[in-house]
Design a protein that fits this description.
Blueprint lengths: L2 H5 L74 E4 H10 L13 E4 L5 E6 L9 E8 L6 H5 L6 H19 L4 E2 L13 E8 L2 E12 L3 E2 L2 E2 L1 H19 L4 H27 L1 E6 L6 E3 L2 E4 L13 E6 L3 E9 L2 E6 L5 H10 L13 E3 L4 E2 L8 E4 L17 E3 L4 H14 L4 E5 L5 H4 L3 H6 L10 H12 L2 E5 L12 E6 L2 E4 L1 H10 L32 E4 L3 E4 L2 E4 L9 H18 L6 H15 L19 H10 L21 E4 L5 E4 L22
Parallel strand pairs: 1-2, 15-21, 15-22, 17-20, 20-21
Antiparallel strand pairs: 2-3, 3-4, 4-7, 5-7, 6-7, 8-9, 10-14, 10-16, 11-12, 13-14, 18-19, 22-23, 24-25, 25-26, 27-28
């Protein structure tokens, strides 16, 4: 038995039924969670006994429609799981035509296709307007058409399996278009997704692999009557055709898969080279950085390929691309200048997206940035909780302390200052800024304004005064776009000029300008280490009703009745990342925050759990989430900081807190608490089951 089957997988046991959990739905069982929508937090689909009973008219005494009694004696359908052939399911759907929509519940179960794969119908939607039916398909990798996976050793490590899952998700997404079937919609990045996972499975001849495809099926209806014939065509024709075509990894499709895997491995190797050399980023010659439009992430046709200036050029060796020449962005303070519309923000955006690998043909395949780089911007109205803003904001009127600053409606300068401090607290080693999205009064204060407003009357210390110390004291580099002020030329270690999308190194020219036009130096030598905040756990749930955890695009998270605006978090590029962050935030609030551990430590624990168990660790193990995409921990930290109901342990200003070795508690149910020594793990799953709604008692 595999680890997954022990945790609740659906592999059959020796008695012909299902494993310990399978479709049984746990101790709380039952498929009564339809009101919770597509997520079904409180159990799986029914408490059935499995087996081959029901529609086939066996000894259960209920022959129903199969014996000519369709018009007079119809069985009462329930949601018991069944085990049969795909042809049985197709015939069953035909027979359900015209019946009440609730009769669809009878199709829950496992069905074997002639090709050797298995369709699992996990939970049926409650009505035609509810979220679609949840299905998954188990495809053994030893089936015909998948020989390439073994021949090319494409399952040898986690990165290769990730690339295979990402590639097949794209193939199925294209194939499902225009049908009642749906799967996650990938963007230009190759990311860890829950839509297709590869899990090991024990066999007589050893351990093999199974592709688990998670998708959704909108069961058709006319009004509230079943369209059984149409449903049978969806399952027996559309699903079979598109699945078996996507799983035929021969010819041109196999070549594209091999190239997909190679692209990911080259980016991983390039990222490792960037980290090993202490660089911020590397951009290969020939990269096409401009995008088609502001709403399209596809490459611009006819875009100017990037070419490295000799002073910034370096070569790297990659496993598939070989020797590659490109532009090195070194650690320190890097300022990008140039005229409007000449490509400054385009270059910064490419560096920002370089934290992720990209698909072949994107143009940015060999652009790599340190994985923890964070873009910080002004975000009027965001929440700030307990952040030490003293490096940038101090001596406020009325003597208000900024060592632990909290507001529910921050101004532009305050929000950006908080984002900088929070990013450093979360472990970011590179900050990215664009003057177009920054608060001007946080970036600069020129000599005339310094003369007019005395320093003791101005609470804001501009970034230009702190940016050098930020690198020298805290080791945090900066890459920023600056086209309207020359103050940053004094502090820049490197100045890059974008001229009609051509990159030039103008550092020496900038130094001559500084020498010819000097200004009083205002830089400060110190940048205190940000205090590690210690979050309090969420209080017990006091409000009745469903527990809601979801995301709206990439801009808003929803925890019950609380909306969290993350539109300014640039690292969230996929809606699946936002949804995963929502689940991660709930898990942290309800299962990991203990009032002792700093936020950074909690995030490290969460990342270790995701490394070990994958995205399934964020939800109930019976959920089989289909649309999650793994986020970065720096982006999870940003969401935590923007949660308006976040509460922290109070400490005296400027005192550090350290995690104790004491045991931590977790909530196993609404009525019981178990004290354990392993933080963040709830029955092997972070944040599951969820029993709190995040609302604070009044």
């Amino acid at each position: 038995m595999t680890e997954r089957s022990e945790r609740g997988g659906s592999r059959r046991d020796d008695r012909g039924g299902y494993g310990e959990r399978g479709y049984r739905g746990g101790s709380g069982g039952g498929g009564r969670s339809d009101r919770d929508g597509d997520r079904g937090y409180r159990g799986g689909s029914g408490g059935g006994r499995g087996g081959d009973r029901g529609y086939r008219g066996g000894s259960g005494g209920d022959r129903g429609y199969r014996d000519g009694e369709r018009g007079r004696s119809r069985r009462v359908y329930d949601d018991e799981p069944r085990d049969g052939l795909l042809a049985d399911l197709v015939g069953h759907l035909h027979a359900l035509d015209g019946r009440s929509y609730a009769a669809y519940k009878a199709i829950v179960g496992r069905y074997r296709a002639p090709a050797g794969w298995f369709l699992h119908i996990d939970r049926v939607q409650s009505d035609p307007y509810a979220p679609p039916t949840r299905i998954h398909v188990d495809v053994p990798t030893d089936l015909h058409g998948l020989e390439l996976l073994d021949e090319a050793d494409l399952l040898a490590d986690a990165d290769r399996r990730l690339a295979v899952g990402d590639f097949l998700t794209r193939e199925l997404h294209a194939g499902f278009r225009g049908t009642a079937l749906s799967i996650a919609s990938p963007g230009q990045e190759i990311l860890q997704r829950s839509s297709i996972i590869l899990r090991p499975e024990e066999k007589k001849e050893g351990t093999g692999w199974v592709l688990e495809v998670r998708a959704r099926l909108a069961l058709p209806a006319q009004g509230r009557s079943i369209q059984g014939h149409e449903a049978s065509r969806i399952v027996g024709r559309d699903l079979v055709r598109e699945l078996e075509e996507a799983m035929d990894l021969t010819g041109e499709r196999g070549d594209r898969l091999v190239r997909h895997v190679a692209t990911l491995e080259d980016h991983r190797a390039l990222t490792a080279t960037v980290a090993r050399n202490g660089w911020v980023a590397f951009l290969a010659d020939g990269s096409v950085l401009p995008r088609r439009s502001g709403v399209s992430d596809d490459p611009l046709d006819g875009g100017v390929p990037l070419e490295a200036p000799e002073s910034m050029a370096a070569t790297v060796e990659l496993p598939h691309a070989g020797t590659v020449r490109g532009t090195v962005v070194e650690a320190g303070v890097n300022v990008i200048v140039g005229g409007g519309y000449h490509g400054k923000s385009t270059l910064l955006s490419a560096i920002e997206r370089g934290v992720y690998p990209h698909v072949p043909g994107d143009g940015r395949e060999l652009v790599a940035t340190v994985p923890d780089a964070v873009k910080v911007r002004a975000a009027d109205g965001r929440a700030v909780t307990g952040v030490d803003l003293t490096p940038f904001i101090s001596h406020l009127p009325a003597g208000r302390d900024t060592a632990s600053f909290t507001t529910r409606n921050a101004s532009g300068s305050t929000s950006q200052a908080a984002s900088i401090i929070e990013a450093v607290e979360a472990g970011a080693t590179t900050l990215l800024l664009d003057e177009d999205t920054s608060a001007t009064n946080l970036l600069i204060r020129d000599s005339r304004m310094r003369e007019l407003v005395a320093a003791d009357r101005e609470p804001i210390t501009p970034l230009v005064d702190r940016i050098t110390a930020l690198f020298r004291r805290r080791g945090v580099s900066t890459v920023m776009v600056m086209g309207g002020s020359g103050d940053y030329l004094d502090v820049a270690d490197r100045v890059l000029l974008m001229d009609a999308y051509h990159l030039r190194d103008v550092t020496e020219q900038a130094r001559r300008v500084v020498a010819d036009q000097p200004r009083p130096l205002t830089g400060l030598e110190d940048f205190a280490e940000p205090r590690q905040r210690v979050p309090e756990p969420a209080p017990p749930r006091t409000r009745r009703g469903p527990v809601r955890t979801r995301a709206q695009g990439t801009s808003t998270l929803v925890l019950d009745r609380e909306d969290i605006d993350i539109s300014d978090v640039g690292g969230v590029t996929d809606p699946g990342q936002a949804e995963a962050i929502a689940y991660a935030l709930r898990a942290l609030l309800e299962q990991r925050f203990d009032g002792v551990s700093p936020l950074r430590e909690c995030l490290d624990d969460l990342e270790a759990l995701l490394d070990e168990e994958g995205l399934d660790a964020l939800t109930d193990e019976r959920e089989r989430p289909a649309f999650l995409v793994r986020p970065r921990m720096v982006d999870v930290a940003a969401a935590v900081s923007r949660y308006r109901k976040l509460e922290l342990v109070s400490f005296p200003p400027h005192t550090s807190t350290k995690s104790s070795e004491s045991t931590r508690s977790r909530v196993d149910s609404e009525d019981s608490v178990e004290v354990i020594g392993d933080p963040g793990v709830h029955n092997g799953v972070v944040g599951a089951p969820f029993t709190q709604d995040g609302e604070r008692a009044e």
